[in-house]
């Protein structure tokens, strides 16, 4: 069967070549065969490729390739045996080879045009079949591409690419056709790039002729095989160029006539072409042409044979010798010559020369033969020559249009184009370095679709490790994606930078580190864990291999540790604070980021030991660098030293024992103590001093016997700074450190008592200097906060009531507001030391007064700050107790505890204290001032974390704060609500309705008056509420019952009870909220419409009847009024008055009667028998129903909901998973709704008319609705 098919292909090709007028018919018949092919990827491939093991293609593809090759018809004079005379006598036009190439191109166009037309015209059910057929054809053509026997594969694919780049593909209006074109072009372009990479790496000795600019014979290796570069066993050499070969390398090991003096294929073909050139020149001379023409002909032919011509001739000779001696072989060689002829700019002047090359073996029968050429070499030569044809040169055009497709509006096309570019990058990652590719890929980093952004990052990330130099070009844009809204995008960006840093440790990646560490508190826990794991692997994980090389400056720290330390410091220089670094160190030391499975299996103790040792070495290196920077810097030493000190402080905050080496525990204190003598008064110096004092404060209690000289110097330095330093943050740190020093060194409270008495004298004396008094209040409060236990244990008993009385009597009632706030701060410090004072009535009144709504915002902030610091200290005490670290209370025996608030850990009264002030704190969380709200919200956060109050009490306030115009407040409120919903979903859901009402009050009092957004809110006020409400809805959207309860709780607000009814403004707010909910499935708006219908079905009838009664009452009064007016007109006409004429109170008998109807109207409005409260209640209900009806109409338009679909909705039917929802951007319009309550009976008619109109316009048949439900 296969033999018959092969013979049939041969016959068809001969007919195709001989009868040009029948070519279109044969192409049509071929297309008919194409439609009968299998379209699966496993299509039957029975055409065996010559000398290619396990490579087969479809018979139809083989027929197509042969038809194209036979369309370039060989001149009849060259089909038989020829010699030079035959070539000379052949009357072949100079354009004939070009015409042959054009004929082949025309055949390709005819075939592909019909195939693509049938694809675009195919029915939807036939499209997959058509795609499969085309894909199989392209796959076969790529299989035979660059095989010596099939030169037509490249032109066929080239024509296909040209058509796909035009209206048949990328410019088509059909999205599916464009996507398919992108798939095909991506596969073809990736193959072109892969072949280009292979060719560039190829070291075949024959191809060196193409790459060497100059044919330098000195480059030829002597006494070494040109193939394997080996030197032994050489017994073959070229007699012309001297190249040496192994017989096995040349594939001549079995030849019997091996001789050392042979000719290599390069030299043999050069000789052939040289002889042909000489024949051609001689022929020109013999014809006796004119000298100028002869000169022109001679200069057209190079004096020396070019390297390209030589390699081309090697391929032709291989085909002539190794291929079957049939017509197919001849047409293949002729097809090659036609392609090369077209590419040669001077080819038309050398037509005879090209014709002679086709059968050079026959013309030069006596020239002998060169060494044999293997098939593998022939394929490599074909691949190299293929890089110079027009098909390969079209790669840039394909790539450019694929990159342009990345900017298409359709996300489907962008995703397809990105996959196509990815396949090209897979072939050669260096493509990512192209500026065009970089710009296009970075543009997709900001794509609107998360999947596209992630795919773009994945494209770059796959090649970071293998090509770090390319990755560095993308690192800035990748770092920006760390803040992406998509979790998967953020995680992929972090992994890319981690891989890049691991593969290129010397790169400057501090900016990227800053972006990564900014996500350490990400709302997604998996991102937090990835961030911590990333820095653990980069800094704290023990690297593989030996890294014992020490720093050259005499340090005992390994070079690898020193490098990591500098990376940390460089990152910190670009950070606003070191709090994220503290979190990283803390979680790394405890390995919190490890998965639960690893924690359950147990953490290796050796791993923890190695981790702590690395952290200790980092701290030691930081101390060394502090000294080195000081010695080598100028007057700005402290500014340069500051980053190292801040990093050291971060380690010390997490674990102070890292700064107490076993060999010398006091090393860090002794080294850092001299820096306290710095007298420079600047912000950077103050920050430096504060950090150094913190490290000393944390380390001193851990030293069993600190050096007395150091202790004495520390006391004097701290005392001087407490009294004189201008930065209060430094003073605060000094007082805390002095208290710890007095306790740990066993020095007693002597110095503390001296300072307390000093500042008390300032406060109780006649001093009127505000700065001195403010400083004294600040210092006195801190001394009592941190030194309370030492002072209380002293022989000189501390008189706390006396100090409190001084504050209350003299400073908390002063007119000087700054001193009043400072006194409030001092009171807060004292209450942290003695929290039981907060239960006393006078202190309770003071704190309540500071939290009242009518006091200055600064006093509110200070009162809230006092409570916040008390709670923080209580929490730190509880944390220390639970972890077993005695870091809070003092030890009277000079132990090693770190002093924090005395009494702060008394949890028995902590909850009681907070509950006393809880209502005031919640009220301040909705304060007009942004800072006050933030301070109150921080207290709510810590109270909920400690569980001091029932969480349900603050749900409405947190819901209201979701709409806060300050982003930080709204985010924190959302975070707290999210945690509460996870732990207590029932509490959360039960207060959603109350929260909405409170958010409305907050919206009216805060958002509408906010300075920042007031001007924008006039046009669209709900825009500032929508994000917060949407976030709340997303929390419960996953659960159908929860979201239905939420929606129902809002709709229920439109039903007033007998006791009270919500304001119309609140109902309008609810309608706006319901219209702005982010629905994602049809089930959600359908339920809302269902709930609205249920309310209308229950309430509309009664409301309409009530309004009708009010209207009829108004009409009756109008009739009575008209009769009275007529009576008055009759009396006036008869010139007399009667006593029973009804006058408006205060009226005059002789007033104008034209005013009587209006007077009667006024009279009816003030009629005593009309119950205005009941009238307004009924009108309120009618307006509420109108708002619901307008909301329902809006939902039906926006979500394209038909009446039948709304009526068919049932809660019993489960939602259809994956059902798409269509949404139109139509704004809710309720501006034309009359939402004002009537002030008299006549206004009811307007409300009644509007209500009846909306009910009539609503097409729902509530009789059917009632029966359906």
UniProtKB/TrEMBL annotation:
InterPro entries: ARM-like, ARM-type_fold, Cohesin_HEAT, Nipped-B_C, Scc2/Nipped-B, Znf_FYVE_PHD. GO terms for biological process: chromatin looping; establishment of mitotic sister chromatid cohesion; establishment of protein localization to chromatin; regulation of gene expression; replication-born double-strand break repair via sister chromatid exchange. Coiled coil: none annotated. GO terms for molecular function: chromatin binding; cohesin loader activity; zinc ion binding. It is found in: Nucleus. One of its GO terms (cellular component) is Scc2-Scc4 cohesin loading complex. Residues 910-1095 form the Sister chromatid cohesion C-terminal domain. Its main location: nucleus. It holds the Pfam family Cohesin_HEAT. SUPFAM superfamilies: ARM repeat (SSF48371), FYVE/PHD zinc finger (SSF57903). Keywords: Cell cycle, Metal-binding, Nucleus, Repeat, Zinc, Zinc-finger. Belongs to the SCC2/Nipped-B family. This is Sister chromatid cohesion protein. It comes from Aegilops tauschii subsp. strangulata.
């Amino acid at each position: 069967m296969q033999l018959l098919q092969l013979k049939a292909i041969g016959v068809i090709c001969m007919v195709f070549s001989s009868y040009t007028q029948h070519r279109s018919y044969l192409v049509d018949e071929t297309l008919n065969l194409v439609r009968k092919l299998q379209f699966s990827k496993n299509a039957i491939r029975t055409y065996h490729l010559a000398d290619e093991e396990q490579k087969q293609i479809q018979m139809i593809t083989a027929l197509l390739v042969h038809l194209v090759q036979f369309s370039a018809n060989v001149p009849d004079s060259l089909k038989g045996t020829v010699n030079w005379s035959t070539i000379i006598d052949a009357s072949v036009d100079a354009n004939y080879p070009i015409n042959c190439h054009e004929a082949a191109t025309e055949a390709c166009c005819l075939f592909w045009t019909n195939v693509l037309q049938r694809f675009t015209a195919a029915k939807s059910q036939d499209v997959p079949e058509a795609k499969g057929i085309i894909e199989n054809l392209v796959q076969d053509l790529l299989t035979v591409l660059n095989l010596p026997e099939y030169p037509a594969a490249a032109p066929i694919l080239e024509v296909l690419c040209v058509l796909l780049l035009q209206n048949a593909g990328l410019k088509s209006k059909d999205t599916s056709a464009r996507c398919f074109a992108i798939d095909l072009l991506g596969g073809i372009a990736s193959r072109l790039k892969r072949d280009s990479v292979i060719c560039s790496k190829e070291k075949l000795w024959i191809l060196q002729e193409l790459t060497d600019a100059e044919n330098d014979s000195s480059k030829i290796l002597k006494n070494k095989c040109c193939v394997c570069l080996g030197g032994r066993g050489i017994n073959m050499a070229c007699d012309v160029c001297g190249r040496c070969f192994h017989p096995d390398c040349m594939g001549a090991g079995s030849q019997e006539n091996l001789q050392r003096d042979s000719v290599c294929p390069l030299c043999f073909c050069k000789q052939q072409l040289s002889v042909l050139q000489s024949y051609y020149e001689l022929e020109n001379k013999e014809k006796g042409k004119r000298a100028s023409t002869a000169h022109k002909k001679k200069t057209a032919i190079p004096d020396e044979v070019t390297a390209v011509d030589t390699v081309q001739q090697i391929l032709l000779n291989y085909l002539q010798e190794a291929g079957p001696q049939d017509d197919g072989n001849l047409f293949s060689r002729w097809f090659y010559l036609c392609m090369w002829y077209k590419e040669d700019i001077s080819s038309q002047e050398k037509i005879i020369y090209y014709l002679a090359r086709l059968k050079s073996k026959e013309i030069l029968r006596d020239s002998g033969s060169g060494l044999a050429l293997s098939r593998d070499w022939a394929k490599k030569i074909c691949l190299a020559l293929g890089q110079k044809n027009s098909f390969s040169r079209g790669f840039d055009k394909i790539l450019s249009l694929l990159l342009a497709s990345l900017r298409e509006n359709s996300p489907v096309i962008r995703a397809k184009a990105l996959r196509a570019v990815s396949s090209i990058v897979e072939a050669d990652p260096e493509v990512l370095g192209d500026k065009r590719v970089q710009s296009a890929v970075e543009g997709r980093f900001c794509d609107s679709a998360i999947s596209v952004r992630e795919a773009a990052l994945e494209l770059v990330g796959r090649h970071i490790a293998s090509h770090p130099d390319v990755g560095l070009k993308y690192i800035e844009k990748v770092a920006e994606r760390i803040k992406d809204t998509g979790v998967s995008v953020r995680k992929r960006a972090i992994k890319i930078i981690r891989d890049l840093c691991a593969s290129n440790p010397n790169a400057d990646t501090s900016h990227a580190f800053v972006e990564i560490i900014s996500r350490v508190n990400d709302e997604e826990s998996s991102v937090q864990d990835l961030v911590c794991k990333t820095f653990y692997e980069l800094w704290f994980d023990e690297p593989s291999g030996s890294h014992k090389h020490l720093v050259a400056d005499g340090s005992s720290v390994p070079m690898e540790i020193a490098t990591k330390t500098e990376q940390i410091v460089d990152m910190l220089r670009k950070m606003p604070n070191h709090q994220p670094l503290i979190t990283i160190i803390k979680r790394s030391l405890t390995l919190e980021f490890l998965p639960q499975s690893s924690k359950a299996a147990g953490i290796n103790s050796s791993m923890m030991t190695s981790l702590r040792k690395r952290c200790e070495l980092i701290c030691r290196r930081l101390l060394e660098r502090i000294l080195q920077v000081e010695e080598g810097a100028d007057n700005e030493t402290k500014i340069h030293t500051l980053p190292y000190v801040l990093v050291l402080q971060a380690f010390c905050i997490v674990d102070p024992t890292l700064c107490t080496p076993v060999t010398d525990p006091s090393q860090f204190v002794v080294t850092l103590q001299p820096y306290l003598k710095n007298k420079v008064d600047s912000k950077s110096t103050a920050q430096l001093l504060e950090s150094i004092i913190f490290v000393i404060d944390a380390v001193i209690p851990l030293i069993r016997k600190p050096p007395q000289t150091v202790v004495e110097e520390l006391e004097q330095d701290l005392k001087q700074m407490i009294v004189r330093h201008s930065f209060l943050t430094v003073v605060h740190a000094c007082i805390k450190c002095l208290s710890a020093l007095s306790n740990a060194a066993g020095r007693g409270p002597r110095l503390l008592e001296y300072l307390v008495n000093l500042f008390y004298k300032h406060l109780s004396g006649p001093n009127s200097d505000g700065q001195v008094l403010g400083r004294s209040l600040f210092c006195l409060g801190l001394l009592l906060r941190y030194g309370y236990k030492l002072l209380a244990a002293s022989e000189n008993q501390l008189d706390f009531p006396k100090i409190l009385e001084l504050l209350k009597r003299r400073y908390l009632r002063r007119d000087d507001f700054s001193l009043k706030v400072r006194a409030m701060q001092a009171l807060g410090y004292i209450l942290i030391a003695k929290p039981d004072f907060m239960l006393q009535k006078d202190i309770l009144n003071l704190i309540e007064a500071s939290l009242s709504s009518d006091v200055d915002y600064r006093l509110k902030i200070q009162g809230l700050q006092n409570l916040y610091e008390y709670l923080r200290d209580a929490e730190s005490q509880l944390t220390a107790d639970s972890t077993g670290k005695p870091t809070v209370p003092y030890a009277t025996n000079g132990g090693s505890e770190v002093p924090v608030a005395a009494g702060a850990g008394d949890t028995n009264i902590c909850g009681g204290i907070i509950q006393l002030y809880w209502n005031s704190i919640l009220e301040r969380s909705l304060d007009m001032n942004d800072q006050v709200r933030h301070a109150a919200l921080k207290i709510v956060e810590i109270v909920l974390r400690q569980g001091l109050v029932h969480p349900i009490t603050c749900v409405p306030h947190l819901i209201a704060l979701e709409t806060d115009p300050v982003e930080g407040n709204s985010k924190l409120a959302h975070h707290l609500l999210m945690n509460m919903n996870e732990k207590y979903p029932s509490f959360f859901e039960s207060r959603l309705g109350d929260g909405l009402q409170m958010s409305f009050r907050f919206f009216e009092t805060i958002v509408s008056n906010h300075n920042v957004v007031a001007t924008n809110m006039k046009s669209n006020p709900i825009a500032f509420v929508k994000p917060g409400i949407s976030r709340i809805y997303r929390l419960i959207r996953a659960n159908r019952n929860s979201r239905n309860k939420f929606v129902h709780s809002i709709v229920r607000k439109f039903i007033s009870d007998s006791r009270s009814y919500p304001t119309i403004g609140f109902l309008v707010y609810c309608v706006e909220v319901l219209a702005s909910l982010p629905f994602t499935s049809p089930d959600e708006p359908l339920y809302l419409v269902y709930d609205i219908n249920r309310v209308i079905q229950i309430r509309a009838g009664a409301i309409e009847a009530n309004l009708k009664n009010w209207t009829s009452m108004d009409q009756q009064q109008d009739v009575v009024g008209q009769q009275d007016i007529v009576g008055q007109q009759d009396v006036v006409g008869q010139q007399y008055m009667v006593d029973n004429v009804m006058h408006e109170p205060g009226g005059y008998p002789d007033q104008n009667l034209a005013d009587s109807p209006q007077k009667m109207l006024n009279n009816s409005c003030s009629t005593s028998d009309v119950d205005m409260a009941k009238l307004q209640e009924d009108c309120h209900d009618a307006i509420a129903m109108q708002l619901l009806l307008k909301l329902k109409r809006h939902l039906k338009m926006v979500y394209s909901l038909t009446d039948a679909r709304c009526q068919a909705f049932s809660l019993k039917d489960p939602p259809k998973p994956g059902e798409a929802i269509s949404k139109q951007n139509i704004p809710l319009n309720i501006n034309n709704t009359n939402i004002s309550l009537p002030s008299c009976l006549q206004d009811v008619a307007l409300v009644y008319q509007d209500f009846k109109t909306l009910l009539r316009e609503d097409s729902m048949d509530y009789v059917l609705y009632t029966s359906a439900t």
